[in-house]
Amino acid sequence: MRVVIVGGGMAGLVLARGLMARGKTPLVLERSPESVVVPGPIMLPFQAFDPLEDLGLLAPIRSMGRDVPPFRNGEPVAVGVGRQPVLAMLREGVTIEWDSEVVELIREGDRVRGCVVAGAGGARRDIPADLVVGADGARSGVRDLAGIAAEVHASGTAAISWRSPREPAEPFEIRFLADGRQVTMLGWPGGAVGGWQIPRPAGGAEEAMAPGLDVYREAFGRLLPGAAGPLEEVGPDDWFYREATEVSCDTWWVPGVALIGEALHAMDPEAGIGSGLGMGDAQALAIAVSRNPDDPDAACRDWEHWRRPALAPYLALGSAGVRVVRGGPAPPEERWPPGDGGAA
Ligand SMILES: Cc1cc2nc3c(=O)[nH]c(=O)nc-3n(C[C@H](O)[C@H](O)[C@H](O)COP(=O)(O)OP(=O)(O)OC[C@H]3O[C@@H](n4cnc5c(N)ncnc54)[C@H](O)[C@@H]3O)c2cc1C
């Protein structure tokens, strides 16, 4: 079976490696150039451990990062690690065509038989495939081209985040606010990242960042005192506002096309498990393809049959399912926007 994977993010690369480990030779099409560098860390949750262990990569990835406690049977609940080194490790040995954006699907009756790729100069090529896997993220073009309906909306939670080159003492700190949203800091060998989650403001970045970096830094440090040191090295270019896209999708595949990762289910990052769920999709699909080497529909049926029950609790709860809601009025230091001395 010729498998073409659209998207060289974590889900697509784990699928490629999982297929290669089972004797297949998939092709990954990635629209970015090879020189792309993805900055900052990710907190790889325990849901990513099985898929990475399957590839023999859990131990090397843990050695590049910082374990996040608590531990069970010697394994942490998560690992804080640079995104770029993880992607570089996952890419090893994978055939990736860079600067290759999938812009169309090739059809034969009801079945997709491949895709059309536009290269950097705009030249188009046909790539035949028995199974095209959309691992192309929350704004998946493959999903749209395949006519798979999805609910796509902006999350109700936005975040103001920062990056610092200074590594904190603790690998991870979290404070749940009265409404259950989080203020967090993750340490990794490259420093620290922090984020304050707020209800998405109507005025977007301008409204969210209006209090200014100094007020933000001070208010954040009051909520998570361990962040005070790393925050000292956060400059005007190191803090960011971001909104997230959420996706839910009831159809997982159609003849010749399957979706995995954020193309299939994207949650607000407050859930902290997106990479683990995407890697789990990828691992299950690699096993299903290897067990049905000549029948893409049977592979997709098996995959959906195994994977749906595993994902069901996460999809039912959504990202807000991780909230620890204390309720009641927020104390002054938790209120957004922060004011003088947190007394706003
Ligand atoms: C701010 C933020 C913080 C997060 N933090 C965490 C965290 O701490 N822990 C965690 O587990 N998860 C986290 N996540 C989620 C996590 O990043 C993703 O779930 C994970 O990276 C898997 O994504 P993916 O591979 O499905 O998609 P993506 O990473 O979006 O990759 C999709 C790839 O497809 C390519 N592509 C898109 N369209 C095309 C096309 N038409 N043709 C070719 N290529 C295409 C893109 O260039 C991209 O490389 C976070 C997400 C965000 C936004």
Series of secondary-structure elements, N-terminal to C-terminal: EHEEHHEEHEEEEEHEEEEHHHEEEHH
CATH architecture annotation name of the largest domain: 3-Layer(bba) Sandwich
Bound molecules: flavin-adenine dinucleotide
* Number of spatially distinct domains: 2
> Could you tell me the number of beta strands?
17
- Oligomerization category of the chains in this entry: single chain
How helical, in percent, are the residues? 25-40%
CATH class of the largest domain: Alpha Beta
- Note the beta-strand portion: 25-35%
First CA to last CA: what distance?
A: 61 Å
The shape is: globular
Unreliable spans: none
Strand order, sheet with most strands? 6-2-1-10-17-16
What is the fold-level CATH name, i.e. the topology of the largest domain? FAD/NAD(P)-binding domain
Largest sheet: 6 strands, mixed
Count of DSSP H/I helices? 10
What average pLDDT do the residues reach? 96
Radius of gyration: 21 Å
- Going by CATH, what is the homologous superfamily of the largest domain? FAD/NAD(P)-binding domain
Kindly describe this structure.
- The chain is α+β, with helices and mostly antiparallel strands and 344 residues long.
- The chain has two domains: 3-151 and 245-321, FAD/NAD(P)-binding domain (3-Layer(bba) Sandwich); 155-244 and 329-342.
- The protein has ten helices and 17 strands.
- The strands form four sheets. Strands 6-2-1-10-17-16 form a six-stranded mixed sheet.
- Strand 1, helix 1 (10-20) and strand 2 (27-29) form a beta-alpha-beta unit.
- It starts with a strand and ends in a 27-residue tail after the last helix.
- 44% of the residues are buried.
- The mean pLDDT is 96.
- Bound molecules: flavin-adenine dinucleotide.
- Residues 6-12, 29-32, 42-43, 45, 101-102, 135-137, 141, 242, 244, 261-262, 269, 272-276, 278 line the site of flavin-adenine dinucleotide.
- Flavin-adenine dinucleotide (FAD) is lined by residues 6-12, 29-32, 42-43, 45, 101-102, 135-137, 141, 242, 244, 261-262, 269, 272-276, 278.
